């Protein structure tokens, strides 16, 4: 029997707690405010932004829309970020990724004031995370840590294998797992004999962006499988990076797609926006 790691349920619980924290802030005359920067017309990004804004509204976090055409120059985006940095009503700044081709993502992220970097992508925040002194952490790995804690999954001394080394998930996940005293292995597109490595793991975090890339035989029966993937298969169905049909019922714990890691990402975004607002008191 595989236990489902229900991110949707936990994210709803977290959002209920956040509503209360927003009420406390409002009593002090503060409305937490998230500035959203969306450049271009990537359909997936438009859906994610819509979901983020909807969740923010439910919790009581105000959002400020900044929707720019794909033709916007890098310097224009950076100028917008500088103005949001200087806007006292803005607590968090979110730049939806990916940015259109030709825009240097690193330069844009580095323009965000680290104290308003609600996505935790600024090198200063990533550096602090690796020093175990993190304040603002990338939302997806942060959500995964909350989900594992909720289900009492111990990490101290456990073998954790991270499949994928992206800036959004794999890289910060390394830091968080090390901070939790796990023994961490990172695998990527150049890794040989991947199956031999994942089969030894107590926890496997898969973030490669390839539909159903890992099948059930990549995991041992006691494994905890965290699927960060969000892909459309040939039939247009939303599937993860792990093949659910061959994995479910073969491992101890697994996140569903949808309803696993995705909703936790949004809950963490709102939590961090509120934390920044609370620090302003
Ligand atoms: N600035 C950022 N950009 C991106 C991030 C990020 O954390 N910050 N992560 C991803 C996309 N992402 C958030 O932006 C994200 C993806 C998916 C979900 C989600 O809730 N998914 C649902 C299913 C949604 C659907 O039906 O399509 C689920 O898993 O249940 C939330 C956030 C890239 N860019």
From TrEMBL:
One of its GO terms (cellular component) is cytosol. Its EC number is 1.5.1.5, 3.5.4.9. It catalyses: (6R)-5,10-methylene-5,6,7,8-tetrahydrofolate + NADP(+) = (6R)-5,10-methenyltetrahydrofolate + NADPH; (6R)-5,10-methenyltetrahydrofolate + H2O = (6R)-10-formyltetrahydrofolate + H(+). It holds the Pfam family THF_DHG_CYH_C. InterPro entries: Aminoacid_DH-like_N_sf, NAD(P)-bd_dom_sf, THF_DH/CycHdrlase, THF_DH/CycHdrlase_cat_dom, THF_DH/CycHdrlase_CS, THF_DH/CycHdrlase_NAD-bd_dom. Residues 5-119 form the Tetrahydrofolate dehydrogenase/cyclohydrolase catalytic domain. GO terms for biological process: L-histidine biosynthetic process; methionine biosynthetic process; purine nucleotide biosynthetic process; tetrahydrofolate interconversion. GO terms for molecular function: methenyltetrahydrofolate cyclohydrolase activity; methylenetetrahydrofolate dehydrogenase (NADP+) activity. NADP(+) binds at residues 164-166. Keywords: Amino-acid biosynthesis, Histidine biosynthesis, Hydrolase, Methionine biosynthesis, Multifunctional enzyme, NADP, One-carbon metabolism, Oxidoreductase, Purine biosynthesis. The keyword NAD does not apply. Residues 138-279 form the Tetrahydrofolate dehydrogenase/cyclohydrolase NAD(P)-binding domain. It comes from the Bacteria. Pathway: One-carbon metabolism; tetrahydrofolate interconversion. Catalyzes the oxidation of 5,10-methylenetetrahydrofolate to 5,10-methenyltetrahydrofolate and then the hydrolysis of 5,10-methenyltetrahydrofolate to 10-formyltetrahydrofolate. HAMAP family: THF_DHG_CYH. Homodimer. Belongs to the tetrahydrofolate dehydrogenase/cyclohydrolase family. This is Bifunctional protein FolD. The lineage of its organism: Bacteria, Bacillati, Bacillota, Bacilli, Lactobacillales. The gene is folD.
């Amino acid at each position: 029997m595989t236990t489902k790691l229900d991110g949707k349920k936990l994210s709803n619980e977290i959002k209920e707690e956040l509503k209360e924290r927003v009420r406390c802030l409002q009593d002090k005359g503060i409305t937490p405010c998230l500035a959203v920067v969306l450049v271009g017309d990537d359909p997936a990004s438009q859906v994610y932004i819509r979901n983020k804004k909807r969740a923010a509204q439910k919790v009581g976090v105000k959002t400020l829309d900044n929707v720019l055409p794909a033709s916007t120059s890098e310097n224009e985006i950076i100028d917008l970020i500088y103005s949001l940095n200087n806007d006292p009503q803005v607590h968090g700044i979110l730049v939806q990724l990916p940015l259109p081709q030709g825009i240097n993502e690193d330069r844009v992220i580095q323009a965000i004031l680290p104290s308003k970097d609600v996505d935790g992508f600024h090198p200063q925040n990533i550096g602090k995370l690796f020093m175990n002194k993190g304040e603002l952490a990338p939302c997806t790995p942060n959500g995964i840590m909350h989900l594992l804690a909720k289900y009492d999954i111990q990490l101290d001394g456990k073998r954790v294998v991270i499949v994928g080394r992206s800036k959004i998930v794999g890289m910060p996940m390394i830091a968080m797992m090390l901070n939790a005293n796990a023994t961490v292995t990172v695998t990527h597109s150049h890794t040989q004999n991947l199956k031999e490595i994942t089969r030894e793991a107590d926890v496997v975090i898969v973030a490669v962006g390839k539909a159903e890339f890992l099948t059930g035989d990549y995991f041992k029966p006691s494994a905890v499988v965290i699927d960060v993937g969000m892909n459309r298969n040939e039939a247009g169905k939303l599937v993860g990076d792990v093949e659910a049909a061959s994995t479910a019922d073969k491992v101890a714990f697994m996140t569903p797609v949808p309803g696993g890691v995705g909703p936790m990402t949004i809950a963490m975004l709102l939590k961090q926006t509120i934390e920044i607002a609370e620090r302003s008191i």
